[in-house]
Amino acid sequence: MALENVTVEDDVNVAAERPMMPAIMKGWRRRCPNCGNGPLLSGYLKVRDTCPVCREELHHHRADDGPAYLTILFVGHLMAPLLHIAFVMFRPEPLVLFTIFAVGCVALSLYLLPRLKGVIVAIQWAREMHGFSRSPA
Question: Transmembrane residues, as ranges (predicted)?
Answer without folding.
Answer: 68-89, 95-113
